[in-house]
């Protein structure tokens, strides 16, 4: 099983979209093994977006992610990194596929409502940034896993 990190950003929280987005994630069959609603400290925001430091939009990224609560999650599932990115859609909501989370809920690219890791390396780095090991619950089975004897 593969793991990935995702975060519902302040716009998703403020617009009461968390439940609808979580429902899509769960309906896809991904298992949520870590979840927390939090105000993002400035230092964590800078570490998360370190690859963009020095780019013109970097300060706006930091300001946005720290502007309100974020719902951080660790997901587990078969091919979850690319699968989640598919249901999330392209970064620009005007280019995102119809039916994707970004096409359906995002209004402006710079105030994107969801983040999804783009590789195994990014997923591991981001999970370790946002979660302590004891905050990840791996010892439960979904109903489907239980029924299938996994």
Task: Describe, in plain words, how this protein is organized in 3D.
- The protein is an alpha+beta fold and 150 residues long.
- Helices cover 41% and strands 19% of the residues.
- The protein has eight helices and four strands; from the N terminus they run βααβααβααβαα.
Q: Please compute the radius of gyration using only Cα atoms.
A: 15 Å
Helix content: 40-55%
Tell me the number of helical segments per DSSP (H or I, 4 or more residues long).
8
Query: Helix and strand string, N-terminal first?
Result: EHHEHHEHHEHH
What is the average of the pLDDT values? 94
Sum up the structure in keywords.
150 residues, alpha+beta, 8 helices, 4 strands, 19% strand, globular
In short:
The chain is 41% helix and 19% strand. The chain is built from 8 helices and 4 strands; from the N terminus they run E-H-H-E-H-H-E-H-H-E-H-H.
Helix-strand layout with pairing:
Layout: E1 2-8, H1 10-14, H2 18-28, E2 31-39, H3 42-48, H4 58-65, E3 69-77, H5 80-88, H6 101-105, E4 114-116, H7 120-130, H8 143-148
Antiparallel strand pairs: 1-3, 1-4, 2-3
């Amino acid at each position: 099983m593969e793991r990935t990190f995702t975060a519902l950003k302040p716009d998703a929280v403020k617009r009461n979209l968390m439940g609808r987005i979580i429902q899509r994630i769960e309906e896809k069959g991904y298992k949520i093994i870590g979840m927390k609603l939090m105000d993002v400290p400035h230092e964590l925001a800078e570490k998360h977006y370190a690859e963009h430091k020095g780019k013109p939009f970097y300060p706006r990224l930091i300001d946005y992610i720290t502007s309100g609560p974020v719902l951080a999650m660790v997901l587990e599932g078969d091919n979850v990194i690319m699968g989640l990115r598919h249901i999330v859609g392209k970064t620009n909501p005007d280019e995102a596929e119809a039916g994707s989370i970004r096409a359906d809920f995002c209004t402006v690219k710079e105030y994107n409502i969801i983040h999804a890791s783009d590789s195994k390396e990014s997923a591991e780095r981001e999970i370790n940034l946002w979660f302590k090991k004891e905050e990840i619950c791996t010892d439960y089975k979904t109903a489907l896993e239980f029924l299938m004897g996994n």
